[in-house]
């Protein structure tokens, strides 16, 4: 029997890399993708079946999917939309171009890739589509407005997709991590410096604290977990006969999930307003 196949985006480091390695070790045929050719070469050197895929580029998406289907004979069992980044900054300071770029990567690219594989999964009568969301997909925190919005959008789209795919054999699940060991803060720092005009912002003083957080070495919080915690949830979602709509990872995600349902909005705002 041939091994099950999965396409994963954003495998250059962090969650994507660990999930690709972990699933490959469990016998999955993993198509690990990354945006940069150098990262693809490094993944191949590690023994992974790696391809170049930039979710911001429609041609790149089409070419990668075509190559995967060529190699599998036209089938694909699962997709993990993992690629993404966070654009820091107060909502009033994020330029339109930066907000557009945030949605291109975190939402539009993931959605276009999903649309490319759904016809394949419909024909074969089964499939699993996973989206890497965040605790910030349902609990907004300040100075993360662009990222919050992109993950809220992802969650709403996936809720819709589950309803529309009912009876097709295709299951859709959201993975919702909190703080995970990755290059997320380092990448966010680059976007902050590129896009936010600190000198002319009303939030200049608060940004000093944000910059310290983004530059901090090691874990951002005491609740940070290794990327293997996400791998465990991905494996659970892929193996379940009836996968859950959401798989929450880390203590903060579980905590805020319940607080949002128990506390009045004003009280929750007070709690979230004190979060780093």
Beta-strand content estimate: 5-15%
Task: State the CATH topology.
Answer: Rossmann fold
On the 0 to 100 scale, the average pLDDT is: 95
Spatial extent as radius of gyration: 19 Å
Tally of separate helices: 10
The CATH architecture classification is: 3-Layer(aba) Sandwich
> Order of strands across the widest beta sheet?
3-2-1-4-5-6-7
Main CATH class: Alpha Beta
CATH superfamily: NAD(P)-binding Rossmann-like Domain
Number of strands: 7
Basic shape: globular
- Terminal-residue CA separation: 49 Å
What structural class should be given to the helix and strand makeup? alpha/beta
The biggest beta sheet is recorded as:
7 strands, parallel
Domain tally: 1
What is the element string, with H for helices and E for strands?
EHEHEHEHEHEHHHEHH
Low-confidence stretches: none
Describe the structure.
This protein has helices at 14-25, 37-45, 58-72, 96-124, 145-164, 184-195, 204-215, 228-239, 251-262, 265-273; strands spanning 5-8, 29-34, 49-52, 78-81, 127-132, 170-177, 246-249. It has 276 residues and is of the alpha/beta class. It has one domain (5-273): NAD(P)-binding Rossmann-like Domain (Rossmann fold, 3-Layer(aba) Sandwich). Helix 3 runs parallel beside helix 4 (96-124), helix 4 (96-124) runs parallel beside helix 5 (145-164) and helix 6 packs antiparallel against helix 7 (204-215). The chain starts with a strand and ends with a helix.
């Amino acid at each position: 029997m041939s091994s099950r196949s999965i396409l994963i985006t954003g495998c250059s480091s962090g969650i994507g890399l660990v999930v690709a390695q972990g699933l490959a070790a469990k016998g999955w045929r993993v198509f690990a993708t990354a945006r940069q050719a150098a990262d693809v070469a490094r993944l191949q050197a590690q023994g992974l079946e790696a391809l170049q895929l930039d979710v911001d580029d429609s041609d790149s998406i089409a070419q990668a999917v075509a190559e995967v289907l060529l190699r599998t004979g036209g089938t694909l069992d699962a997709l993990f939309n993992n690629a993404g980044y966070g654009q820091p900054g107060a909502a009033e300071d994020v330029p339109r171009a930066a907000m557009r770029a945030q949605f291109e990567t975190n939402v539009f690219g993931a959605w276009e890739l999903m649309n490319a594989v759904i016809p394949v999964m419909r024909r074969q009568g089964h499939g699993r589509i996973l989206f890497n969301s965040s605790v910030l997909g349902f609990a907004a925190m300040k100075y993360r407005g662009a990222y919050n919005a992109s993950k809220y959008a992802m969650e709403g789209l996936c809720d819709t997709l589950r309803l529309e795919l009912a009876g097709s054999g295709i299951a859709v699940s959201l993975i919702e991590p909190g703080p995970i060991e990755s290059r997320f803060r380092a990448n966010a720092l680059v976007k902050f410096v590129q896009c936010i005009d600190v000198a002319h912002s009303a939030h200049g003083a608060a940004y000093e604290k944000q910059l310290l957080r983004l530059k901090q070495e090691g874990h951002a919080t005491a609740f940070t977990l290794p990327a293997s915690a996400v791998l465990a949830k991905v494996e659970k979602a892929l193996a379940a006969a009836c996968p859950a709509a959401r798989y929450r990872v880390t203590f903060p995600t579980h905590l805020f999930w319940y607080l949002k349902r128990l506390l009045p909005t004003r009280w929750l705002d007070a709690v979230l307003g004190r979060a780093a």
